[in-house]
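1st attempt posting a full record on here, be nice pls
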Amino acid sequence: MEYDIKSIAEQIECLARLTGAPTSFVDQVRDLFTRKGISLGEDAAPYVRALEEAFIREESIRASAEQTRVGIASSVSDFKKIGKTYVQQVERLRRVQAGLRDKRRSARAAAADSTTVRIDSEISARSLVTRQQHEDMPMVPGPDDLQ
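the predicted structure (as tokens):
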């Protein structure tokens, strides 16, 4: 195989196209070489491995960041669903509690009503059952007590 000798600038451009690196990253790599006093027209051979590693890492970081964005968007959607379900459950609980309160009030009102009359259908359709009444009888004196 025959390899064309590439300049650093050409190698950077090639790796940028292959990995889809953003322009900002490509500019940072170029700037790194120029700050170190290395011409972008020089042979890229001594730097190929480092350049490839840098571009592959950047691509990996971008992919990971995208997965994180997707995961966060999914989590936000899930939390909205959880919140909606929570609100629905709280509303159901409030309705049940209100129903129980109403039943408790009506039961108390029925118990407090001393004139409540119920029909006992087993005895007769016309029999009335009323609240039980108590009579307080005086105590009967014993044999040694005054009669």
